[in-house]
Specification:
Elements (H helix, E strand, L loop, with lengths): L3 E6 L2 E6 L10 H15 L6 E5 L3 E3 L4 H6 L4 H23 L5 E5 L2 E3 L3 H5 L3 E5 L3 E3 L2 H4 L11 H5 L1 H9 L4 E2 H7 L4 E3 L4 H13 L3 H11 L2 H22 L2 H13 L2
Parallel strand pairs: 2-3, 3-5, 4-6, 5-7, 6-8, 7-10
Antiparallel strand pairs: 1-2, 8-9
Helix pairs in contact: 1-3, 3-11
């Protein structure tokens, strides 16, 4: 079974995270498959790229079981973490540079670094039962995936800090009010909403959409995001090796067993 699946609909391509038995939690094979799919699809000039997840969750971020499996030595844990977070950040940057509008159909929970896939989307249709939540302060991780690199530009620095200090759960209605979602609807209507957006895009020139996106996410702006993401990765690697973070991962896993 492929960890990432693609489906063409009405000229747009849907890209599905496909690890539903683990709530699409991120592991290196999945982030690697995501990056490979993005590179391939960028050459095919879809009308839009649509990100979504199979099962009940969009993605619950980095799979803590994967970190714990590599916690036998500091170097193994560091290498695993650097590879996973690095791939995720590269995928986010590749989404920002994607040569077509990027949409997201958020079918369920979005936690941890996987929120970066939404932060990189142009328009987000969110299930009325979906939510975003960081969880970093409960585990002891440093934020990754754009929680400090992208979120402050979306909601303001103070609100971005408040959300992360309090580990606040951002429901669909609040996400809409904050501008993190463009539309909220029942989960069963997500595809209909996305199809309507794709139809709207089709009324304009694809070339215009492309250069508009390139103008917003020009090289200078993307390089600034890259710089911030690199800082996130460095801080993540600093904290993930600490004994209290290992204890936090074990405690978090027990609480959800």
């Amino acid at each position: 079974m492929s960890l990432v699946e693609t489906e063409w609909r009405h000229g747009a391509v849907w890209l599905w995270l496909n690890r539903p038995e683990r709530h699409n939690a991120l592991v290196p094979p999945l982030t690697g498959a995501l990056r490979s799919a993005l590179a391939e699809l960028a050459e095919q000039e879809p009308a839009a790229l649509v990100l979504s997840g199979r099962g009940h969750s969009f993605s619950t971020g980095g799979d803590i079981a994967g970190f714990l499996e590599h916690a036998g030595s500091r170097q193994a844990l560091r290498d695993y973490s650097e590879g996973l977070v690095g791939d995720l950040h590269d995928a986010i940057l590749e989404l920002l540079a994607f040569p077509a509008p990027v949409l997201a159909a958020v079918n369920g929970a979005v936690t941890g670094g996987s929120a970066g896939l939404l932060f990189a989307a142009d328009m987000v249709a969110m299930s009325d039962r979906a939510f975003l939540q960081p969880y970093y302060c409960e585990v002891g991780f440093a934020p990754d995936g754009g929680w400090t690199a992208l979120l402050p530009d979306r909601v303001g620095p103070s609100k971005a800090l408040e959300i992360q200090y309090r580990n606040a759960r951002i429901g669909a209605a609040e996400a809409l009010a904050l501008g993190l979602a463009s539309s909220v609807c029942p989960r069963s209507e997500l595809a209909t909403q996305i199809d309507a957006w794709v139809d709207d895009l089709g009324k304009g020139f694809a070339r215009t959409h492309r250069v508009t996106r390139q103008g917003v996410w020009d090289e200078r702006r993307r390089e600034e995001v890259r710089r911030r993401l690199d800082l996130e990765r460095a801080r993540f690697l600093e904290l993930v090796e600490r004994p209290e973070t290992l204890d936090g991962m074990k405690r978090f896993t027990r609480q959800r067993a």
